[in-house]
Design brief:
InterPro entries: Integrase_cat-core (IPR001584), RNaseH_sf (IPR036397). This protein is an alpha+beta fold and 715 residues long. It has 4 domains: 149 residues, no CATH class; 81 residues; 206 residues, 2-Layer Sandwich (Nucleotidyltransferase, domain 5); 95 residues, no CATH class. 40% of the residues lie in helices and 13% in strands. The protein is built from 27 helices and 18 strands. A 6-stranded antiparallel beta barrel has the order 13-14-15-18-17-16. A 5-stranded antiparallel beta sheet has the order 4-3-2-1-5, sandwiched between helices. A 5-stranded mixed beta sheet has the order 10-9-6-11-12. Strand 17 and strand 18 form a beta hairpin. Helix 6 crosses helix 7 and helix 12 packs antiparallel against helix 21. About 1% of the residues have low confidence.
Length: 715
Amino acid sequence: MQVEKNSVWQVLQVDGVEDGTYRVLGHYADVNLLVLFRLQDTSGLQRPIVISLSQFTDEIKSGQITHTDFPAPFYQLVAEEEISTSHRKKRDDRFDLIRELVSSPNFLLEFALNPRCNLVVAHARQKGTYVQGLYRSLNLFWKYGQERNALLPAYKYSGGAGKPRIAGSVKRGSPIQVSTPSMDVPLGVNTSEEDKAKFLKAMKRYGLKGKKATFSRVYDQMLKELYAEELVSAESEVREVQVPSYRAFVYWVKKLIPKQELIRKQTSSGDFARNRRGLRGSATVHTEVPGSCFELDATVLDVHVVSEFRRNYVLGRPTVYCVVDKESRMIVGLHVSMEYASWRAGRQALVNSFTPKKEYCAMYGIEIEEAEWPCHHIPQRLLCDRGEFICKDAENLAVPLVGHLSLAPPYRAELKGIVEQRFNILNSKLVHELKGTTKGRQYIRGDKDPRLDAALTLKEINKLLIDAVLDHNSAIFESLSGQTTLLIESGLAPTPLNYWNVHMQKHRHALTKANEAEVHARLLPVETVTMTSKGLWRNDEMFYEVNHPNFEDWKVIARAGRSWRLEARFNQDNSSIIYVRLQEQEGFSRCELMLGSSNFSQRHQADILHFEDWKKMEKKRTKPSAKSVERYRRRKSIVKNAEDEAKKAPPLSSKAERTRGMKDRRREAIQQARGESELPVSKQSLETPSHVEQWAEERQQNVISLLKRKKDRST
């Protein structure tokens, strides 16, 4: 290691040199010597010492001499134009007195080698000044780097600024100014050391308890508790109370307690960590490329939605899950549902993040190209909340896909600042302008209930959020331009989409791609479906079919009374598709909703649940009406009358007589109904009653013959 002029070294246990910090004043290679000057904060004068250069370098190698720093005082680190004229004159006068000495090449070595050197004395006599003044100027010059500003006057240290002093008995501070000369103004008391101790005690007891407390409140409580005797005695003796003033209390509290401690102790640890601590850097400090970390979080949207089946049914406020790439600010996944924040809804957001978006957007009637939202990758790390992802399911299902799962501490939303800010952007640019919005605030008495204005369904909210996400990914964020040089090199605007694409093209990312079937199998909720004669049955109304060569044969087997249950995965965002393991040795196959169940095509799980709840409620609500009761009573009356008339009929000789000749009697009934005599008459009724014949003749007269269509004989 080189030993340079003005370099500073720490010396420990070196023969002939006292331990301490030294500055190298001169390097004399021809005689192999170094001149050192000890740096101390004392006002005493020091003399330079001499040491062998070889010994110095050997001790550096052994570690007994190490390189260190000695910063210059703040009043010396100023620009020349900022130095006052008087200070500049004092500096220049001091330097003129020692200029000839420090400019001489042999003065430093001779002065260090010879303790009785008279060069300084002779120079003082020549300049007509004191020897001690020259020694002090030389010490300052050597101590602070052998440059002119080392001789600036240190007036900012004068008077002991900031150091406590022992006060006398004379009243300090300005008296109270009054406009009435005859009014007696109390003199007040000085603040003693005992008073200061009481100030600290009162602040610890009332003002530093983890919540905001005003000085006036603490001062009032302090007087009532720590100065109670003085208050009582002053009132009984009818005199002025001899206690420190409120102004003195505030002054000494701010002086005795550091400002940072006041801030820290007057709030909770969580609030301090989120909103008051010093910032250590940006949110992307620990990420290098897209895919290094995805942030996932959920919030309740500030808007109420209605049922898609009945628009006048308000469902409440949906929950939106958002997945954001921390480095590029790209929104890579979205999920909106009526589920509360949970692992069940969170994994739906992960499925959306890890799979292509073109089909997802088409499900809501939005046609995009794959390049407009090219996010279907798995990150290196996933940062999320403890609430829904601390369960075993998240660790067992998500961790095999994602390299590392990080859980943010409780009450530390700022650790996921990127995704939290995305919610703020979506709310300000979209949600707070919709019908039924709460505008992010609590209901105030007198405001119109936002639920009365709700008009959008969950599907329509999804459409709007997808468009908002596409706009966000193409919006300009100036902070992105400072994170990489690839954007300016490629001539691209600093948008999340450009940031993502340019890093993908340069292969500078930490993203991986997984098979879509594997993503669905691992993350989607587990359900069971039943193989029936109509297809794969999920509930009362939903049947699915699959493009499998054995599917029709399986329906035949199921119709014979041998239905069986199968493992399935269900996507809450789209009821048109499920994934079913058709056979034990196979993976999951994609099954689509059959035509007979098209009413539930592309429905959200919330709509399906609402439909099932509606059926239950209607079934429970249905009761017999008044008309139904009337019809029931009429039926009972008819049956009763028929039974009574049957009992009045003459008795028969046998049971066989009741059923004998049924066919002949049937013909007679038909003949009577038609009013015709063409049917053959049975032997038991050869004689026709006269009233029947008369009725038949009248019936025949009323019959009108219609033209008959000619038959086609060509055939």
